[in-house]
Amino acid sequence: MILKILVLLHILAATIWTGGHLILSLGFLPAALRQNDIRIVRQFESRYEGIGIPALIVLLATGIYFIRVYAPDIFLFDLSDHYTRHLLIKLLLLAATVTLAIHARLVLIPKEKLRPLAYHIVAVTILSVLFVVVGYSARGGGLL
């Protein structure tokens, strides 16, 4: 029963994380680019972080638990194992997301570079959707 609750929490957190990035990319970013106003992105992020960061923490915590349950030998890199393959892909997506986030937070946002930040936002949104696709593939029997 605990595993089912954790899967549900993971899905809800993924909905918040991915949905927030889709709203930012499709709803707020175009206006920010049209008006050349990074404040639009900052205002969205300041309001979204209150729910987005806790969702990310839930995703990380449940994801670590799922690795322990479904692929305890993940770092043997046995790509023939269904869960290992999917969870390694998710770890690669996480590394890419963290890299983009650090670069945006330390370089682009302080220098108010909207256009490069827009590319980062779109990339993180795509990565977020890929997280969902890979998660569905792992639980749904495999697309990958």
TrEMBL record:
Any transmembrane segments, and where? 6-29, 50-67, 87-108, 117-138
Q: Which domain of life is it from?
A: Bacteria
For this UniProt record, give its keywords in alphabetical order, as a comma-separated list: Membrane, Transmembrane, Transmembrane helix
Task: Output the InterPro entries linked to this UniProt entry.
Answer: Cu-R_CopD_dom
Every copy of the Copper resistance protein D domain together lies at 44-133
Q: What is this protein called?
A: CopD family protein
Native source species: Algoriphagus namhaensis
Q: What lineage is on file?
A: Bacteria, Pseudomonadati, Bacteroidota, Cytophagia, Cytophagales
